[in-house]
Amino acid sequence: MTADLRWQRWLPEFVALGTIWGSSFVFMRMASQQFGPWSTAWLRVTIALLVLLPLWVWRGQSGVLRTHWRAVMGVGVVNSAIPFCCYAFAVLWLTTGLSSILNATSPLFGALIAWVWLGERPGHWRLLGLGLGFVGVGWLAAGMPGGLSFSEPANGWAVLACLLATTCYGLGTAYSQRYLPSVPALTMATGSLLGACVALAIPGIWFWPQQWPEGSAWLGLLLVGALCTGVAYVLYFRLVTKTGGARTLSVTYVIPLVANLIGVVLLDEAITWQMLWCGILILMGTALANGLLPVRRKG
User: Fold this and answer.
1) Which one, of 143, 118, 181, lies nearest residue 282 by Cα?
2) What is the pTM assigned to this prediction?
């Protein structure tokens, strides 16, 4: 197979992963409106764990988890439990499109944390990317309806929840890269989901809704857990193997497109010009910060 045709090996799965993760914001909203953020996050990781557990057992990787269980389950708290709670809260107040644009800052925070913690000093173009990305986030937050205010969760707190989630993704990735490089991807995914499930069990049960949720909420929960978390993890790790981490990371650019399209078509959400330009700034900044744009260097 020639180099020009190799993209055919991974493009279908790449598009599928971007579509699945882009739709996750809609399914989270369907579930969170009736289950609440804590129970939604707990059931999401539990369902995803049940999807991955048989594959993990079949691969015979239980011995690896026994060796690194504390670290791997700890990553699950940072990389799954906290972010999923944050997004389940944020989608109650923000549109799916806006939430997905803020989610696109995940690689941006990952690059910043890698610089500060791992000593991966960025060059001039990557520094420019960090600057552009954070300018886009600030401009987007300032353009919230009624201004950025922390007196109402629909404004400041929901935006901060999304940014806390993306920061946690960056921290979890940096920790895994530094301390758990030899742990297989499937064990990382399954073990981290197990850690998130344990961490969220008490608040998930404690804040269980008083009124039994309707079928639509259960459907959203099943889809965000089994499809958008369990199946998506399998697709993600297959892509990392096929095409590398950097190219797989660029799936972040597909997610806002899918989420905004779903929001406009199915939820009658509006896309403002400010959202559009801020989204372009964030995506460009993220691409530069992670070296995903072909920049010509002198010399």
Assistant:
1) 143
2) 0.81
**Is residue 48 a part of any domain in this protein?**
yes
- The token pair at 86 is 């944050």
Q: Residue 99 is encoded by which pair of tokens?
A: 């939430």
Instruction: Kindly report the number of other CB atoms within 10 A of residue 33's CB atom.
Output: 17
The two three-digit tokens of residue 63, written as one number: 């011995």
Helix 96-103 with 7-35: angle, nearest 10 deg: 130
Residue range 168-208, pLDDT digits in tens = 988 887 788 778 888 888 888 899 999 999 999 999 999 99
295: in domain: no
Q: Which residues contact 59 (CB under 8 A, 6 or more apart)?
A: 184, 186
In a domain, 5, yes or no: no
Is 127 strand, coil or helix?
Answer: helix
Q: What is the mean pLDDT of each run of 10 residues along the chain (299 residues)?
A: 53 83 90 96 96 90 85 91 95 84 77 74 73 73 56 71 89 81 85 95 96 94 94 78 62 76 76 76 71 56
Q: How many domains are contained in the chain? A: 1
Range of the domain at 47: 11-289
| Helix, strand, coil % over all residues of the chain, rounded to 5 | 80, 0, 20
Contact predicate 231/111, CB 8 Å? no
Of the CA atoms within 13 Å of residue 214, those in its CB half-sphere come to: 4
- Residue 214 resides in a domain: yes
